[in-house]
């Protein structure tokens, strides 16, 4: 049983691993995973082809992916310009930016895990275009692409989609990672993320899957029980640097991980999935290594990881599970999606 503190080199913070408490009794609320039969088309869905959205705009009969401006944007060019000047040391600025939605597929019930590799490659290319287009705007400093999946992370519409927030500031985690990576390079002459991959490969116990140019691992310093990073083996500050072959390899590893996630408890696996790409603030980010992180909120099929005293109150994570054990659990899952086995 692991009972120690591990250093998170990308965030420069300690993670308390207290796996010896894993089976402590739980008398609180448990969640019951319920898998209902979701139809391929839902006439009530805002994202399905041909349907009308809240804005009154009708979706086209799209065939693959579909990108549109969010009907309820949190940032936009039409956000108020003249703001109340705050008192004292406080400051504010207009909530400028662009918020978009990307539907992965016209099929309402098809998750990322169930798309084929070619379809995932097509999606990666959409992300490349969006990052390039939105990031080139002079006022946009960062393009955050993320998917929230599952009701436990607040998603009520199962239609597979992700969101894009292109903002006039750099999101905090990216700012931290970019700063730490720069500092590490300055001190050692090496890319921090390359050293992380090297350490994971050398240890080997936490690698979920890998191929020629892509790798998925549950990091030594994982803050969530089933947290996994997916990355190309070469360093690129963002997704646009990957070659055709690297995109395919990356899509294959992404799919494999998602299949293992779903197979773990034979249910669609909920997660928050951010793409960590370099800021688009015009500064040098050549030491930033693009990767996707998965932050799954569940510790067990029916048990949520609550963020409480240590995480919310103190800012450091406490985890009750051993990263080595959880990686083993994931790695030994079948490479064939459980839904396919049912047919
Ligand atoms: Zn739909
Ligand atoms: Zn990251």
What structural keywords apply?
9-stranded antiparallel sheet; 343 residues; 3-stranded mixed sheet; 7 helices; 26% helix; alpha+beta; binds zinc ion; globular; single chain
Short summary of the structure?
This protein is α+β, with helices and mostly antiparallel strands and 343 residues long.
Describe this structure in words.
Strands 3-4-6-5-10-11-9-8-7 form a 9-stranded antiparallel sheet, with helices on both faces. Strands 1-2-14 form a 3-stranded mixed sheet, with no helix packed on it. Strands 12-13 form a two-stranded antiparallel sheet. The chain starts with a strand and ends with a helix. Helix content is 26%, strand content 20%. With 343 residues, it is an alpha+beta fold. It is globular. The model has no long low-confidence stretch (mean pLDDT 95). The chain has helices spanning 117-135, 172-188, 192-203, 244-265, 309-314, 323-331, 338-342; strands at 3-8, 13-18, 66-69, 97-103, 142-149, 161-167, 207-210, 214-217, 228-232, 271-276, 291-294, 298-300, 303-304, 318-319. Strand 1 (3-8) and strand 2 form a beta hairpin. Bound molecules: zinc ion (ZN) (2 copies). Residues 10, 177, 276, 291, 293 line the site of one zinc ion.
């Amino acid at each position: 049983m692991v009972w120690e503190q591990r250093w998170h080199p990308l965030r420069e913070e300690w993670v308390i691993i207290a796996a010896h408490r894993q089976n402590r009794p739980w008398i609180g609320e448990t969640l019951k995973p319920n898998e209902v039969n979701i139809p391929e088309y839902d006439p009530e869905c805002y994202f399905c082809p041909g349907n009308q959205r809240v804005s009154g705009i009708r979706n086209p009969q799209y065939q693959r992916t579909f990108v549109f401006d969010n009907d309820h944007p949190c940032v936009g060019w039409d956000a108020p310009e003249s703001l109340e000047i705050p008192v004292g040391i406080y400051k504010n600025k207009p909530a400028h930016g662009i918020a978009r939605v990307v539907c992965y597929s016209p099929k309402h019930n098809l998750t990322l895990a169930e798309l084929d590799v070619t379809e995932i490659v097509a999606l990666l290319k959409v992300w490349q275009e969006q990052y390039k287009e939105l990031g080139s705007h002079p006022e946009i400093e960062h393009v955050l692409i993320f998917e929230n999946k599952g009701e436990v992370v607040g998603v009520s519409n199962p239609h597979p989609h992700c969101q894009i927030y292109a903002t006039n500031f750099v999101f905090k985690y990216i700012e931290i990672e970019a700063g730490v990576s720069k500092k590490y390079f300055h001190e050692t002459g090496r890319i921090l993320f390359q050293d992380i991959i090297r350490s994971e490969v050398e240890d080997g116990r936490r690698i979920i899957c890998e191929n020629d140019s892509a790798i998925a691992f549950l990091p030594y310093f994982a803050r969530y029980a089933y947290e996994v990073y997916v990355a190309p083996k070469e360093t690129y500050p963002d997704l646009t640097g990957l070659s055709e072959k690297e995109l395919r390899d990356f899509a294959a590893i992404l799919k494999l991980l998602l299949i293992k996630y779903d197979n773990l408890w034979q249910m669609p696996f909920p997660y928050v999935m951010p793409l960590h790409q370099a800021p688009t603030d015009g500064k040098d980010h050549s030491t930033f290594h693009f990767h996707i992180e998965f932050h799954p909120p569940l510790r067990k099929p029916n048990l949520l990881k609550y963020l409480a005293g240590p995480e919310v109150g103190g800012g450091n994570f406490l985890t009750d599970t051993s990263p080595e054990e959880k990686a083993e659990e994931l790695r030994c899952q079948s490479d064939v999606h459980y839904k396919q086995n049912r047919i």
